[in-house]
Sequence to fold (306 residues):
Amino acid sequence: MGEKKMRGINTVVAVVAMAAATVAFGQSATAQTEDVAPVFKMAPDVLTKGQDFQVQVQEGTCPGGLESVTSPGFAAPLKPGDLTGRAGKQAGDFTATAKCKGSTKTGTAGFQVLNRNFFPLFKIVPDQLKPGQAFEVQIDQNDCPDGGMIYSDGFREKKLLNTVHGVAGDKPGNYFATLYCSTAGTIYNSASFEIVPLTANDRFTLDKAEYAPGEQIKATAPASALCIGNLSSTGFVAPIKLARESDQLFSGTGKTIEAPGDYVASMTCNNMTVTQNFKVTAQKPKAKAPVVKPKGAPQTGGGGTA
Fold:
């Protein structure tokens, strides 16, 4: 009985040992299968600064999934298992290195970052403007080499096509300008600017808001406004020239035209196109002289007697 029991125990021990060996062999085979170098590529492999990319891994070369993908050309290392990233701010030729989970080997792939921003960098100069003030759009070097369009509700001409110069609108407020590049590999970006109200020191002034047809107009401007040229309007008989009245003041006179209507006077002051609205009113008709009727019966003539 004791001998049979011992043989049974030995049999169990042998089975357990075989099972353990099988598990150990399976682990070794699995480890051998997973210890491979990942084969992958960057898509696209030619990028602009700040452009997004994908890591495309060849099937069967990373069975455990990606543990890390790093490169000095990345804006940041990819998170474990993540297959998307963004190019950094440095241009050049780079190498990405990938490692799979459970593997000691790494794979590499080359890519290039061009010296151009995916989101073009630009600014409005100056970024604080007065109504009618000229400005320049300064675009980061190498961005938008093929030109493009700049749009803003704060521009007098809403769209600037293939030009970097414009004029601020007339309504004060905070605005955004959006730059759309024509160059492939670059999309769009925005920049903010502000339009602040004009002050009395920035502009000319008309003496009235409404005039009768042919009425005299007087315009003045402080010396600090640095107004140049003539004050003009389609509502004037002729442009008005401002002359120095004192050390601090310039003035001039003119006449309105006969046609009633709403008009705009404009002049360049402090390198801005300054405007002011005025009206020529309709002339009131002259009152007719009253008709005076004679008193008494009209004379019929013949006043003799028979």
